[in-house]
Write a structure and sequence with these properties.
With 443 residues, the chain is α+β, with helices and mostly antiparallel strands. It has helices at residues 5-60, 65-75, 146-152, 171-252, 258-284, 296-307, 327-344, 397-407, and strands at 80-87, 93-98, 107-113, 116-120, 126-131, 162-169, 292-294, 312-320, 323-325, 351-357, 363-368, 411-416, 422-428, 439-442. It folds into three domains: 5-182, Beta-Lactamase; 203-284, Helix Hairpins (Orthogonal Bundle), CATH 1.10.287; 292-442, Histidine kinase-like ATPase, C-terminal domain (Heat Shock Protein 90, 2-Layer Sandwich), CATH 3.30.565.10.
C-alpha cells in the first residue's frame, strides 16, 4: 500500500527534528564536560604555581617586591598573572606583583586543603588560589636569635602569618574551551542545516502534492467539459423541438382547458432545462476572451439593469475610465454574482456592489449580500462545478464565473463579511496601459 505523502513529510520532519536535538544535546554535553575538565586543568596548574612560588619564597627567605617580581617572571609561562601577599593579622598589604584581573567574576571552587581555597572565573580557565599561611623563616633567613636577625636583616622576617593569593590563567584550558565552542557551533549549524533541508523538502513535497492535485483536477474538468459538450448538444435540439410544440399546444388550448396548466408546467420546465443546457455548453467552451478597452462601471451598471430591481446599491471608488475586458463575458459573471446575492439577501436588504482601483493598480469589483453567509470551510468549494446548496441551482454559475475571470488573468474569491453576509471579490490585473485611464469617485 502506498504511503500518503503527508505521512512521509511528517516522518521526515520528526526524524530530522530528533537528529537535530541529538546533535545539539551532544554539543552541549561536550561543552559541559570540557568546562569541568578545564577547571581540573586550571586547578592543577594553580596548585603547581603555588608550590613553585612557595619554594622560591623559602629559598629567598623573604617576601618583598623584588622577590614577588622574580616569582612572577619565573612562573608567568606557567600561567601566573598576579600575586598578592597580605598580613594575616590585619590584612595589610605586604606586597604584590603583576596585574589583577578586574573583569573576572570569581565563583568559589571549594577548599583544596584546610588552609587553601580556590575560586574560578566563569569560563573555568582562570583561577584564584589563596593560601592562608606559610610556615618557617626560609632557608635564607639568619638563624640566630630572632630579635637580632630581624634587627640586622629586617626584610628577612619569618614567612608565617602571611596570606598569599595567586591569580592564574590556563592556556590549555582556553584551548579546550575554544574546541568545545567550535564543537557546539558545528552541532548547532548541522542541526539548523538538517532542519532547513527538512523544511525545504516539506515545502517541495507540498508543492508537488498541490501540483498533482491540480493536474488531476484539471484532467477531471477536461473530461467533465467533454461530457458536458456532448450532453449539451444532444439535449439542445430535442429541447428546442419540445419547447416549440408545447408553445403551439398552449396556444391552441382554451384557457379553461384542464390540460393547459400541465402544458404550462411542461413549458416552464423545458425552459429551465434549456437554460441548464446553455450553461453546460457555456462551461464546456474553451474560455477564450476577446478584450477591448471598455468602461468597467458601464459593464457593472448594465449587469445591474439586467438583474433588475431597485435593491442593488452601486459604489464607485476611484474606478478606472477604461479597462481591457471581454465586456460580454464579464457582464455574465456580474449578472450571476448579483442574482446569487439578491437571492441570498432577505427582503428589504440591498445588495452592495463596489468598483475600486486597488493600491496595486488592479481593478476590484466586490458584490456583498446580507444573507447568512458561506458555510465555514466551503469558501473554495462553492466554485466547484455542480456544487450548490440551492434547491433549483445548477452549480455551474460560480464555476463558469471563475473560468471567465481566470481567462482575464484575474482571481475571484469568496469570504464572509465581518458584519454578516457573503462577499465575492473579482480582481483583474491591468493587461495594457490605457493612456486615458482616469479616476472617478461617486456612489
Amino acid at each position: 500500500m502506498k504511503t500518503p505523502p503527508m505521512y512521509l513529510r511528517w516522518g521526515l520532519l520528526l526524524s530530522a527534528s530528533a537528529m537535530a536535538v541529538v546533535l545539539v544535546a551532544a554539543g552541549l554535553w561536550v561543552r559541559v564536560g570540557i568546562r569541568q575538565a578545564s577547571r581540573t586543568v586550571t586547578s592543577g596548574q594553580a596548585i603547581g604555581v603555588a608550590f613553585a612560588a612557595r619554594r622560591t619564597f623559602r629559598m629567598a627567605g623573604a617576601i618583598n617586591h623584588a622577590v614577588l617580581q622574580e616569582v612572577l617572571d619565573e612562573l608567568a609561562p606557567q600561567g601566573l598573572r598576579y600575586i598578592e601577599v597580605l598580613s594575616e593579622a590585619d590584612q595589610s598589604m605586604v606586597g604584590s606583583a603583576g596585574k589583577r584581573e578586574l573583569q573576572h567574576r570569581w565563583f568559589p571552587g571549594g577548599n583544596l586543603a584546610p588552609t587553601v581555597t580556590i575560586a574560578f572565573a566563569q569560563d573555568g580557565a582562570s583561577a584564584r588560589l589563596t593560601a592562608q599561611s606559610l610556615e618557617g623563616a626560609g632557608l635564607g633567613a639568619n638563624r640566630t636569635a630572632g630579635s637580632e636577625a630581624e634587627h640586622e636583616h629586617p626584610e628577612r622576617r619569618p614567612l608565617h602569618g602571611k596570606q598569599i593569593t595567586f591569580e592564574t590563567d590556563s592556556a590549555a584550558a582556553h584551548a579546550m574551551l575554544w574546541r568545545a565552542r567550535v564543537t557546539l557551533v558545528v552541532s548547532l549549524l548541522a542541526a539548523a542545516v538538517l532542519l532547513g533541508l527538512a523544511a525545504v523538502f516539506w515545502r517541495l513535497s507540498r508543492h508537488a502534492e498541490r501540483a498533482s492535485f491540480q493536474l488531476e483536477h484539471d484532467r477531471q474538468l477536461k473530461i467533465l467539459g467533454q461530457m458536458s459538450a456532448v450532453l449539451g448538444h444532444e439535449i439542445k435540439n430535442p429541447l428546442a423541438s419540445l419547447k416549440g410544440h408545447i408553445q403551439l399546444l398552449i396556444e391552441k388550448l382554451p384557457v379553461e382547458h384542464t390540460g393547459r396548466k400541465g402544458a404550462e408546467i411542461v413549458l416552464r420546465e423545458t425552459i429551465r432545462l434549456e437554460e441548464l443546457s446553455r450553461q453546460v455548453l457555456e462551461f464546456a467552451r474553451t474560455g477564450a476572451v476577446r478584450r477591448e478597452n471598455v468602461d468597467p462601471v458601464t459593464i457593472v451598471r448594465t449587469a445591474v439593469d439586467n438583474v433588475g430591481g431597485t435593491d442593488i446599491r452601486l459604489h464607485v471608488r476611484g474606478g478606472p475610465a477604461t479597462w481591457s475586458l471581454d465586456s460580454t463575458r464579464m457582464e455574465e459573471v456580474l449578472v450571476n454574482l448579483l442574482r446569487n446575492a439578491r437571492d441570498a439577501s432577505p427582503p428589504g436588504n440591498p445588495v452592495d456592489v463596489t468598483v475600486d482601483l486597488a493600491a496595486n493598480h488592479n481593478l476590484s469589483i466586490e458584490v456583498r449580500d446580507h444573507g447568512e453567509g458561506i458555510v465555514a470551510g466551503e469558501e473554495e468549494r462553492v466554485f466547484e462545478p455542480f456544487y450548490t446548496r440551492r434547491v433549483k441551482g445548477t452549480g455551474l454559475g460560480l464555476a463558469l464565473a471563475r473560468r471567465i475571470v481566470e481567462g482575464h488573468g484575474g482571481v475571484i474569491t469568496a469570504h464572509n463579511h465581518p458584519e454578516g453576509g457573503a462577499v465575492f471579490s473579482v480582481t483583474l490585473p491591468p493587461i495594457c496601459k490605457e493612456s486615458e485611464r482616469g479616476t472617478r469617485t461617486h456612489s
